[in-house]
Design goal:
Elements: H1 5-14, E1 30-34, E2 44-48, E3 51-58, E4 61-66, E5 80-82, E6 85-87, E7 94-96, E8 102-104, E9 113-119, E10 122-130, H2 159-168, E11 172-173, E12 177-178, E13 182-186, E14 190-196, H3 202-219, E15 224-228, E16 237-242
Length: 259
């Protein structure tokens, strides 16, 4: 396991699709640890197939999460565990050990979870792919948190700015009309919206660009946007609207709350 904090963060945010990024799954069934080495309600640091894991035993069952906190890459395997939740030792974000869902900030996204299988006295990654419990599930709307103070470089927790951006996205798309978009994450630096199964046309892209140009001129901000896919929502288009200080997250490594 990488012990250098800077290298952990760089590995999380900057590695290419060919390296062992957090959120990707080792291929094949890989031994993780001995059953006896995983104590009840205490994390175990492990590495399997190049993937750093935080392994937990909770109520007699075993779970594995990607070891890097979704906030700044803190080692979840070293976090305090209580009531099926692990607290990141760096900044206090909390995650559900059974599925990686984020339960408390400063992280605003969950982490990848992996399915484990007990074989005799050992634990193995089953198939090596992130647990598919969130696939085809509906996104859970994120409950935004607002502050009265407006900061141009970190504007997304200011309700008037947030509302103007989100309401502005409710325009008629060329092929679909107004989309039933869902805000699935928010931080002072960025928001993510679940747009559903859509195809963006050139006309739609121009409308989003015009919206951001107008917002930036009015608020003196430098917000940008990007469209991306996540394997958590197959066939769905996600929209990230971000400020200049937003981290360089990798789409397939990001996990959101699902119903």
């Amino acid at each position: 396991m990488e012990k250098n904090p800077l290298k952990r963060v760089l590995k999380k945010f900057l590695c290419s699709g060919e390296c062992d990024c957090v959120g990707g799954g080792p291929s094949g069934d890989v031994r993780v640890a001995a059953v006896k080495d995983v104590p009840e309600d205490k994390g175990l640091c492990a590495e399997a197939g190049g993937q750093e894991l935080a392994v937990f035993r909770h109520k007699g069952k075993f779970y594995a999460l990607a070891n890097a906190c979704a906030h700044m890459g803190g080692p979840l395997c070293q976090g305090k565990v209580a009531d099926g939740q692990v607290t990141c030792p760096w900044h206090g974000a909390r995650f559900d050990v059974t599925n990686g869902d984020v339960l408390a900030g400063p992280a605003k996204r969950g982490v990848a979870s992996f399915e484990l299988e007990v074989r005799g006295e050992d634990l193995f990654l089953k198939g090596g792919d992130p647990a598919a419990s969130g696939k085809a599930a509906k996104p859970v709307p994120f409950a935004p948190v607002f502050q009265e103070k407006f900061e141009a470089e970190r504007p997304f927790n200011h309700q008037p700015f947030f509302g103007e951006v989100v309401e502005g996205m409710k325009f008629p798309f060329k092929l679909y009309g107004v989309l039933p978009l869902v805000v699935i994450s928010q931080s002072p630096d960025e928001i993510d919206l679940h747009l559903g199964t859509v195809h963006f046309t050139e006309m739609d892209m121009k409308k989003v660009s015009a919206l951001m140009d107008a917002v930036n001129r009015k608020w003196h901000t430098a917000a940008t946007f990007c469209l991306y896919h996540s394997d958590q929502f197959p066939g769905v288009m996600l929209l990230n609207i971000r400020g200049p200080k937003a981290p360089a997250n990798l789409g397939d490594a990001i996990r959101f709350r699902t119903a």
